[in-house]
Structure formats: structure tokens, C-alpha cells
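Hypothesis: this fold can be encoded by more than one sequence.
Test: take the C-alpha cells below, design a sequence, compare later.
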């Protein structure tokens, strides 16, 4: 922040400590703000065949004509629309002027600290003026301001507009003001957001000027990225609708100077989403006054905190119902077990030991029975269909049903200890979403057992059969297509971490309903960081309420924009927090994954390139690919965002067109050697990937014909069936240098291969040749040979 720039709080303090005769305020972006991303955006709604570019060109033309004919370039709205006489007759021009003014009124608001400063000035008997570089007249500007506060005619003594004086603040408007006001320059206290027009120029005349920096640079950067995310999500933004920006006044007040990573994420991501959703919960509850609210922990923690920040007297309960306890409590008959297994097992894939352990835990198998089934499963080579049969035997089904019934009674005891539900009540389960696993599994059971209705209320509600009958979502299939919702939920783990209570996961309940937890919370230093971020988010919710951020349709859109911006376009400060966190899968497996692993991500890109990550069918075990890609370059994360938002797909072979030809010799002692030219494909960071089919025991890559110097990054084997599959990286088997492959005809320094002779080569001879495998060689050319 420039030393000459100030927050409004500092400006107010300076005003209180100074004896002045005139308070002067700039209008736009100081006293009067717009709730859109850029002032230009309101022109998107002009309609009548007038696009933003045409409107701007008309203004530029009017200013040019005025400059040529009179020597000044200040114009009015009437001058601007006169340039469109071929499209609008005089009466239509007048109507368009009124229409534009109505759009200004609709998309604007008075900045509370500036309005408060006007009131302070009048209380002290100080004269007040507004000085604006604008194409509006003083009368039009006065009407605009008065629309938002009926006190304005009494709070502002005079309005100076460049359109009427013929000169702007950077020209001769200040001398005109000094002459009219008849005061010493130092007796005027001026505040404005333009460094030159509102600070340097008036200060040059001796006026006590203060430059108001609307938002800190980090916030401006965030808002710019919000606009990018908005236009990717909503194609009409910037064309026929403005990009909404409802919280920048909050940021101007609360976020100044040094902004921590926790503040940044709390105020620009979690806070806006929580504010929008808390308002939505209230709307849903007001439609059914008898509804009892139950927030599902752990992810519902911040949803409840925000709701009570806005509605402190509201009644609700924190329900500790995890996906594990919901699954365990849901087995009421053999068909339920059958349905669960069909959804969990993949007929075309073998069952992993970890996968079986999870299923055994969900079905609550006793230890002896689990061991017995595990032994039988091993004999059947971990075939999915065999496990399906083993788990549906009469003994297993009876054991699971009995244990599930007992677990269900304990869960209901937990529910009743918090809500004391009566027959006829409606229980609204509040959570992030998305398919509503807990509601789907438990809803029918609770409705039958307690004679109640169960509804869901979610931040994001994905499509499920008949979803409109029993749930509502701030973002839902009626307003967002499946591609939109998938874009939000594909990599939602990072946002879930912001909402969670980060307590231990609930695995069961005591007889009285007291939850039983398992596992560990976050390390204290990481937990403190998340808790600080969550406090900032609640502060944002409260300030947004205080400033009366409008509860409009744009709120759900802004919530979606905030989530997508955070997921796909995080700032470096936000990624730094994510690097320290792990994601708990919370299915009773105890399995966790790192949210962001930048070194591993770079390694993955060097090996496979961006196409693998943006390809619709590729799949990956990475938890937060977008943030990792963003650290490598915005073009990569934007590619992923576009591929997800618009369901784009393309052949992996067409992901990168840049290739390099290398000659490869296939050596077989029993037959003459065969020389083939293979193409290595560019991946990332200048690296290339070459796949070589292992059709002979020995292979030589004649690198000396093409490369003089290069970096050898990785050499290994990949089974053919894993090629281009989601598990390819996990199937990669590294080959050891000087054991499984050798480099001849060059000097080697660690991974660098330099001064390779023309006859130099890489000789590959895996210890146990696997004829159904490929060799992958990843290298980076440093100096190529000219031919």
C-alpha cells in the first residue's frame, strides 16, 4: 500500500482531529459504490441492441468531438447518446438515459463509512460537497445518491460535476471549486480513490487531500480472479449480465495492510459462502415453522456457527452422524446389504485388502468372521463376485442385520437427546451436500421409527431421483446443470476442510446416544490456523449482516464463484495453508491424503503432462489437482476448469502436439536387430515422455543422434493394461541405473547427461523382461543436435 493511501478508518480519524470548513468527497468508489466487478459491467444490461463496447465507443466519440469543437472533453449522458442517433431517436435517447440511470441505482450502494463521515460533518456544522469526474449532471447524481438514502439532500450542500464545469479534477476543476467555496485551500478536507485526481492534484493547490485505497492489492487480485471464475461458470457474465461483487465493501473495512492467509480465505471464500447459506437456511426454515434443524457434524460445524451468528436466538442441534454411522445403521434387510454391495464393489476390478477392510467395518463383521472371509477371498484371488456371494450368506446377513439394528437404536438415542422429536415434526438435516448420503440412508428409517418427516438442506444438492421432494440446495439442479455441480464437487475436499470442526470421527454411540469418536484431530499448529480462518469467516458474516449485503439471487451465484475460485484459482497464500493439511476420507477407513503436494504434482506433470489431468476419462488419485496446477501456471488450472465446466474431452494422444523423434533399436540375440523411429511427447517443464514397447529383452535408444545434452528424469516399466489408466502412476516400476539400464558415450553428472557422442545411446535391459510391459523414459533436452 502506498504511503499516501489510507483506509477510511484512518481518514475518519484524521478528519476528527482536524478543524476544517469544508468536507469534500469524491463520488464513485468513495461515497457511491457499485456491487459489480467493474463499472463497465452495468452496460451489459442496457439491452436494446447496445452492448458494453458500443456504449463505451459512443462515449469516446462524444469526448473526441467535444475536444475538437470546444477544446474540452467533458461530456454528459445526453452528449453520449446523441452519438447513437442512428439507432435511437431523441425520445429513445431520453429513455436510454433514464434506463442507464436506473441501472446505476439498481447496482449501487452508499459506502457506510463515507456516509457516516457526511453525518459527522453536518453534526459539526461543516459544509459538505461532492466532487466527481462524471458524465452525470449534478441533478442526476443527486437523484442517484438520494435513491439510497433520503438524508442525502440534507447531508450534501453542493455537487460539482466535471460534465457541467467542462473540466475534470485533473484539469481546472479545483480552482473553480476554490473560487466558489471562498475558503483557504487547507480548510477543504477532500477524500477520493483516484491517486492523481483526488490526491496529487488537489494537494498541489494546498487542499488537505487524502487518497482512499478502496481495496488492498491482495484483495484486488482476489476479486480479479473471482471475475475469471465467474465468467467460466456463467458465460453470460460480462456479455448480458454484470459480474456480481457484493463483499468488496466488507473487505475495504476489515482487510487492510498486512493480510494473513487465514484472513484472505476466511473473508473471500468461507465467509461469503456461509453468509449466503445461512440466509438460505432461514428461508427454508421459515417456509415450515415447525421444522427442527440438525447440523451434521463434522462438515456442518461452520454452517451452524454462521447460522447462529446471523440468528443468535435460533434453535438447532449439532448431530454427530458420520457417513460410517449412517451406513452401519441402514441395514434393515438383506436387500439393503445387497444394494450396498452393488454400489461398493466393481465387478471388473479385484477387491483390495483395504477395500475389504472398509466393507467389513461397514457391515460390522466380527473378527473371526472377517478373518474367515478374508482367507476365502484370497483363495478366490480377491474376485469381486466371490466376495459378493460370501457376504450374502445367511450367517453374515443375520450378523450384520442384528448389529445394524442395535447401532440404529443408539443413533436414534443420540438424535433424540439433542432434539426430542415428536410425531409429526419435520427434521431438516443441514450439511454441505451433495447426494445426501446420511439423509438417503437414514431418512426413510427415521420417518418410520419416529413418525416424522426428514428433509435435507445443502450448500450443494446434486441430482438424485426425486430430490425436489425431500431436499433443497443453495446450489441445486434446477439452477445449475450437472456440469456446473460437478465442477464444484470434483475437488471439494479443500473447501470441506474449511467447514469442518476437525474433531475425531464418530464411529458409534453409547446406549444413551453419546457419540464415540475415533482417530486424531489435526496437529495443534494446523488446527489453530484453521480455527483462526474460521473466526475470520464468522467476522465476515457479521459485518456483511451489519452492512446489509443484499440477500438476492446473486448470493448463490457468488457462493459458487467463491468456491470455484478457491478450488481452481487459489492465491499462493491460500495454497500455502492447503499444503499443510490432509484430507480425511471419513468412511471408517482411517485413510488420509495430502490436500496439496506441489513437488509430487510437478513430478506427475513431467511424467504425464497436463492432458492426463484434464482428460475426462483419466482419473487420478490426486486430491486437489487444481491448486497444484495453479502453482504451475494459471493456464493449466484454467484448462482443468474449462474441461470440467463444459464437459470437454479429447484424445490423450492429441493433448500435446510437440514431439521429438528418437531412433530405438530392438535387440534380439536370435534375430537381426530392428530399428524403429518412435515419438516422444512433450509433457511439462520442457520434459518429454517416450513409451517403448518391451518386445525384445534388450533395447537401445540412440539418443546420440538427436541430443547432445539432456536431463534424465525417470526410467521405469509400466504394465500394458495400466497404460493411460487411472492407476498407471501407481503401476510404474522404476528401473535402476547401471543395473537395469546404462548410458554409453557421454559424461554423466547426477541426472545430467552431457557431451553425448553421435554414437551414444541408452541401453535398457530389465532384470526380468516382462513382454506385456512398456518402458517409459522421461527426459528434458538441454541441447539438441542440428542435422
Amino acid at each position: 500500500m502506498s504511503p499516501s493511501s489510507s483506509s477510511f478508518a484512518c481518514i475518519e480519524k484524521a478528519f476528527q482531529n482536524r478543524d476544517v470548513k469544508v468536507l469534500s468527497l469524491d463520488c464513485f468508489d468513495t461515497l457511491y459504490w457499485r456491487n459489480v466487478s467493474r463499472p463497465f459491467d452495468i452496460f451489459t444490461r442496457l439491452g436494446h441492441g447496445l452492448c458494453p463496447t458500443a456504449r463505451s465507443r459512443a462515449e469516446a466519440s462524444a469526448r473526441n468531438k467535444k475536444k475538437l469543437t470546444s477544446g474540452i472533453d467533458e461530456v454528459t449522458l445526453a452528449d453520449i447518446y446523441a452519438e447513437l442517433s442512428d439507432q435511437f431517436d431523441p425520445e429513445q435517447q431520453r429513455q436510454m438515459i433514464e434506463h442507464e440511470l436506473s441501472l446505476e441505482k439498481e447496482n449501487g450502494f452508499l459506502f457506510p463509512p463515507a456516509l457516516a463521515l457526511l453525518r459527522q460533518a453536518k453534526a459539526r456544522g461543516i459544509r459538505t460537497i461532492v466532487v466527481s469526474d462524471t458524465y452525470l449532471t449534478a441533478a442526476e447524481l443527486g437523484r442517484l445518491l438520494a435513491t439510497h438514502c433520503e438524508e442525502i439532500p440534507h447531508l450534501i450542500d453542493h455537487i460539482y460535476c466535471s460534465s457541467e464545469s467542462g473540466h475534470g479534477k485533473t484539469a481546472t476543476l479545483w480552482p473553480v471549486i476554490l473560487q466558489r467555496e471562498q475558503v483557504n485551500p487547507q480548510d477543504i478536507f477532500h477524500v477520493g480513490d483516484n491517486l492523481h485526481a483526488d490526491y496529487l492534484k488537489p494537494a498541489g493547490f494546498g487542499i488537505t487531500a487524502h487518497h482512499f485505497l478502496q481495496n488492498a492489492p491482495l484483495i484486488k487480485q482476489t476479486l480479479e480472479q473471482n471475475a475469471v471464475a465467474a465468467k467460466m461458470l456463467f458465460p453470460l457474465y460480462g456479455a448480458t449480465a454484470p459480474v456480481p461483487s457484493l463483499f468488496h465493501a466488507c473487505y475495504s473495512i476489515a482487510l487492510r495492510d498486512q493480510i494473513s492467509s487465514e484472513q484472505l480465505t476466511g473473508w473471500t471464500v468461507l465467509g461469503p459462502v456461509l453468509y449466503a447459506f445461512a440466509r438460505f437456511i432461514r428461508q427454508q426454515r421459515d417456509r415450515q415453522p415447525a421444522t427442527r434443524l440438525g447440523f451434521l457434524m463434522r462438515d456442518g460445524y461452520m454452517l451452524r456457527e454462521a447460522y447462529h451468528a446471523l440468528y443468535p436466538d435460533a434453535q438447532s442441534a449439532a448431530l454427530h452422524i458420520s457417513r460410517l454411522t449412517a451406513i452401519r445403521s441402514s441395514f434393515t434387510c438383506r436387500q439393503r446389504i445387497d444394494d450396498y454391495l452393488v454400489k461398493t464393489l466393481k465387478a471388473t476390478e479385484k477387491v483390495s485388502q483395504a477395500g475389504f477392510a472398509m466393507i467389513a467395518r461397514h457391515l460390522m463383521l466380527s473378527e473371526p468372521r472377517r478373518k474367515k472371509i478374508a482367507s476365502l477371498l484370497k483363495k478366490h484371488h480377491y474376485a469381486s463376485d466371490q466376495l459378493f456371494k460370501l457376504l450374502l450368506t445367511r450367517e453374515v446377513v443375520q450378523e450384520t442385520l442384528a448389529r445394524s439394528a442395535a447401532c440404529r437404536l443408539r443413533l436414534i438415542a443420540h438424535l433424540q437427546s439433542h432434539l426430542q422429536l415428536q410425531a409429526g415434526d419435520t427434521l431438516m438435516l443441514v450439511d454441505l451436500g451433495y447426494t445426501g448420503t446420511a439423509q438417503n440412508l437414514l431418512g426413510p428409517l427415521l420417518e418410520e421409527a419416529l413418525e416424522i418427516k426428514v428433509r435435507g438442506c445443502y450448500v450443494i444438492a446434486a441430482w438424485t431421483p426425486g430430490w425436489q421432494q425431500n431436499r433443497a440446495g443453495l446450489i441445486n439442479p434446477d439452477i445449475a446443470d450437472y456440469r456446473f455441480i460437478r465442477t464444484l464437487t470434483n475437488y471439494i475436499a479443500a473447501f470441506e476442510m474449511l467447514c469442518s470442526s476437525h474433531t475425531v470421527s464418530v464411529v458409534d454411540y453409547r446406549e444413551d446416544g453419546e457419540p464415540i469418536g475415533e482417530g486424531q484431530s489435526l496437529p495443534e499448529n494446523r488446527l489453530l490456523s484453521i480455527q483462526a480462518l474460521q473466526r475470520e469467516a464468522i467476522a465476515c458474516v457479521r459485518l456483511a449482516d451489519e452492512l446489509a449485503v443484499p440477500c438476492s439471487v446473486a448470493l448463490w451465484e457468488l457462493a459458487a464463484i467463491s468456491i470455484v475460485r478457491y478450488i481452481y484459482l487459489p492465491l499462493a497464500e491460500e495454497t500455502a495453508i492447503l499444503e499443510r493439511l490432509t484430507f480425511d476420507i471419513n468412511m471408517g477407513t482411517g485413510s488420509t491424503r495430502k490436500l496439496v503436494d506441489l513437488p509430487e504434482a510437478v513430478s506427475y506433470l513431467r511424467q504425464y503432462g497436463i492432458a492426463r489431468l484434464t482428460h475426462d476419462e483419466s482419473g487420478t488419485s490426486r486430491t486437489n489437482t487444481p491448486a497444484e496446477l495453479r502453482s504451475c501456471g494459471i493456464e493449466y488450472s484454467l484448462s482443468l476448469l474449462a474441461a470440467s465446466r463444459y464437459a470437454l474431452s479429447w484424445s490423450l494422444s492429441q493433448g500435446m502436439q510437440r514431439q521429438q523423434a528418437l531412433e530405438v533399436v530392438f535387440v534380439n540375440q536370435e534375430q537381426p536387430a530392428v530399428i524403429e523411429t518412435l515419438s516422444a511427447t512433450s509433457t511439462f517443464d520442457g520434459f518429454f515422455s517416450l513409451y517403448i514397447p518391451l518386445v525384445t529383452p534388450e533395447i537401445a535408444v540412440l539418443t546420440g543422434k538427436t541430443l547432445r545434452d539432456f536431463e534424465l528424469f525417470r526410467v521405469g516399466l509400466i504394465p500394458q493394461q495400466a497404460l493411460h489408466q487411472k492407476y498407471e502412476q501407481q503401476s510404474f516400476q522404476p528401473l535402476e541405473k547401471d543395473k537395469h539400464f546404462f548410458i554409453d558415450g557421454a559424461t554423466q553428472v547426477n541426472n545430467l547427461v552431457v557431451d553425448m557422442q553421435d554414437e551414444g545411446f541408452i541401453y535398457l535391459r530389465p532384470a526380468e523382461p516382462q513382454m506385456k510391459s512398456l518402458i517409459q523414459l522421461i527426459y528434458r533436452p538441454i541441447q539438441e543436435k542440428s542435422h
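The first helix runs from residue 8 to 16. Confidence is low (pLDDT under 50) at residues 586-590, 616-620.
Hypothesis status: open.
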